[in-house]
Design the sequence.
């Protein structure tokens, strides 16, 4: 074991362990959702939500481990957490919008883009002319 881990208080070691297990489990659940769900829109939904929470748990565990081990506040993980929390939802939204746009341009009605008549297809129109 490292010197920092041997000097870690029991309460910090337990909290770090719980956060690592929970964060890892959330990331695995998101990966299973990516692998098991049938359509693109369903597959992108699982990881988009779980990556923020799972990565957040892992980064808080890292911050707590190094802060308690070094007896000072370590803030590198706060910056990383803010970056992940700000960029992951935006990237997911942009990827989903691009997929909806592609499906509307190609006229794919079975993709899920027309569910709930949010993006209705016209009845007589096929794919738009280039």
Sequence:
């Amino acid at each position: 074991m490292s010197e920092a881990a041997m000097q870690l208080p029991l309460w910090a070691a337990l909290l770090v362990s719980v956060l690592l297990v929970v964060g890892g489990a959330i990331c695995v659940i998101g990966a299973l959702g990516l692998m098991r769900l049938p359509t693109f829109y369903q597959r992108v939904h699982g990881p988009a939500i779980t990556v923020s929470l799972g990565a957040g748990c892992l980064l808080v565990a890292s911050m707590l481990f190094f802060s308690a081990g070094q007896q000072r506040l370590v803030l590198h993980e706060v910056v990383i957490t803010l970056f992940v929390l700000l960029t992951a939802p935006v990237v997911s939204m942009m990827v989903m919008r691009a997929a909806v746009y592609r499906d509307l341009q190609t006229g794919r009605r079975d993709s899920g883009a027309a569910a709930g008549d949010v993006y209705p297809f016209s009845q007589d129109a096929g794919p738009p002319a280039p």
